[in-house]
Amino acid sequence: MSYLGRKGAVAPLTSADIPAGIVEGTDIAFLENASGTQNLGGTYSTERMYLNDSYTLTGDVTITGHLALGTIADSDVIITQDGTERTITGSGTLDGGNVLQDTHRTSVTGMTGELGTGVTLGSAVTGSPNLNLGNATFPAGYVVNHWHKTNTYTSSAQFEFTMDGTTGVWQEITYGNNDFRLTGITATQNNVLLISVNTGSIRQVNADGYLLNLGFRIDATDYHCGHMLTGLSTNTQEVPGVWQMTYVVPASFTNKTISARGSRQNSSTGNHYCRIRQDGMPHNNMTIGINIFEIQK
To answer: Is the Cβ–Cβ distance between 173 and 199 less than 8 Å?
Structure first.
């Protein structure tokens, strides 16, 4: 009679009983979940892994080694008891889960939860809808928000500053129905807003040395950030109508309106304009507008 293993042995078959080259990887066609329930009980002091559809505690379990309960089914591992309350204790490790779908995913579609610390997103990470980075922290100096409005003109437009008696009043600059106003601005306290505007050009006629004050309004408060003086006596000159200011965001800066503003110096003479003109130039698309950048502090 032929024997597999040691003749008459009652010990389990080991690798010592199988000569080299007799059983190779190609001889094992597949691993299959056991169709029945794997009963668990007693002490597990070595490294052991099961592949089963389900697991049942038929006794108390003590783990001092490493016990892995796996499945290659679509569902996750569920451990039940046999109707009697059981315990799982010990200093070892108990792992369980779907062997393929959870630990070897190539896609996170359908997954929920939170990425832990130490996770780094690559530069090519995208999302649809866009990734929600509302709680992300950016280094100081990074632009974390941007608002803008751009208007393009094919013909001349201008805004003239007026007087209220002898007093210059702050006025919002508009070219017809177009303005330099942005609404719904919400920014984080202590960050910095860089607010800039291009209105085309500033023109003063017979200003006789009087200034045109320029700035911005945030809700109901005007901020003066500079002035222009382009014309003396009968001289007429123009300079670029560009100005900007930096603004440290206070607390509760939510849903604000910011616009470009200007004011004539008190008792000033002459005419003061913001304007954009074609004047027969070859370009027919003249672009101006307002930009606001929020910079991380």
So the answer is: yes
Share of the chain above pLDDT 90, in %: 36
- Topology classification of domain 143-295: Jelly Rolls (2.60.120)
pLDDT tens sequence across 147-187: 999 998 888 888 999 888 788 899 999 998 899 999 999 99
Please report, for the chain, the start and end positions of each structural domain, with discontinuous segments joined by +: 24-98, 143-295
What one-character-per-residue DSSP string does 178-244 give? Answer: EE-EEEEE---TT-EEEEEEEEEEEEEES-TT--EEEEEEETTEEEEEEEE----TT-EEEEEEEEE
Instruction: Kindly tell me if the per-residue pLDDT of 282 is higher than 70.
Output: no
| Rounded Cα gap, residues 195 and 147, in angstroms | 10
Residue 25 has phi, psi (to 5 degrees) of -60, -35
Query: In this predicted structure, what is the pLDDT of residue 204?
Result: 81
Beta bridge partners of 263: 213
Distant-in-sequence, close-in-space partners of 281: CB < 8 Å, separation ≥ 6: none
